[in-house]
Every structure is written in structure tokens, then in C-alpha cells.
Design brief:
The structure is a single chain. The protein is α+β, with helices and mostly antiparallel strands and 156 residues long. The protein has 3 helices and 7 strands, in the order βααββββββα. It has a 7-stranded antiparallel sheet, with helices on one face. β5 and β6 form a beta hairpin.
Length: 156
């Protein structure tokens, strides 16, 4: 079988940050609450892939399906690390490039609230997609922070 080489393919690490007035617990809960994603992200649907009738919190090893606004499946991800109120890490389990791994890190901000850092590494990235991926990640982290802020505002 002949070898296939992808010319111009390299790795890419993207990092985006934002600050929320909400506590890390509120931000973490919003991140795990699949039903809230359409309220703050560009995705219309995030669904945890758990057997029917099972009602439990997400845990390491669980998978989720992320769909775009058009209803097409964007990717399937697997949770690889969960540190409540501190870190949520995942990897792409299927799709065009299955080497995508991401983490959302939460830290107490010096003047209150939470600093959010979302990073993603693509082992096989096409330079043409670098800028859109950077923009998309910055939008997601900003929208997550704004959504958490709105939760705090509603409960004040």
C-alpha cells in the first residue's frame, strides 16, 4: 500500500482567555451542562452519549456529540480529565482529524471571579484553518464567560 503524505500539515496549539465575574463552580457547571451550550456557543446541540434512562453527572470516559447550527455532527468527543471547578479536558473521538485535544482551565482571578483559559491542540492542522480555529476558540471562551456572568446577574 503506498504511503500518503499530507503536504503543509503541521501541529497547531491555540489558546484563548477570558474572565468571568462568576465563580469557578458556576463556569464549570455551565461547561458541563450540555443543554446550556446553544445559549452561549455557536453549536446548536451538545448531547452526552449515555445509555437511555441513566441520569448521572458526566465523568471521565464519557462521550459527547456536538452538532452545528445546521444539525450536522461537528464531532464526537471523549472526556479525558475532570477536576471539578478547575479543569475539563477532552479529545476528539472521531471526525476528520481525530488528533484534537482541548482543555478548559479555571483559576480564581486576583480581584474575584474566574480566569478561563481554553486551549486546543491539533496534531494534524492545515494552515488554512489556523486563523478560523483561533477566532472560534476566542469566541467560545468569551461566550462561556459572558454566559456565566449572566447566571450571576440573574441570581443577584
Amino acid at each position: 500500500m503506498p504511503s500518503v503524505y499530507l503536504v503543509g500539515v503541521s501541529s497547531l496549539t491555540v489558546t484563548a482567555s477570558s474572565r468571568s465575574s462568576a465563580s469557578a463552580a458556576v463556569v464549570y457547571a455551565a461547561l458541563l451542562h450540555a443543554e446550556s451550550w446553544p445559549l452561549w456557543s455557536a453549536h446548536a446541540d451538545v448531547e452526552w452519549d449515555v445509555p437511555a434512562g441513566i441520569d448521572r453527572p458526566a465523568r471521565v470516559g464519557d462521550r459527547r456529540t456536538i452538532r452545528t447550527l445546521t444539525g450536522r455532527v461537528h464531532c464526537h468527543e471523549r472526556v479525558v480529565e475532570m477536576v471539578p471547578d478547575q479543569r475539563f479536558s477532552y479529545e476528539q473521538a472521531s471526525g476528520l482529524f481525530t488528533s484534537h485535544r482541548g482543555s478548559v482551565d479555571l483559576a480564581r482571578a486576583p480581584r474575584g471571579g474566574t480566569d478561563i483559559t481554553w486551549s486546543a491542540t491539533y496534531r494534524h492542522a492545515l494552515p488554512l484553518l489556523d486563523t478560523p480555529r483561533r477566532r472560534r476558540l476566542q469566541v467560545w471562551v468569551h461566550d462561556l464567560a459572558a454566559y456565566a456572568d449572566s447566571i450571576v446577574s440573574r441570581h443577584s
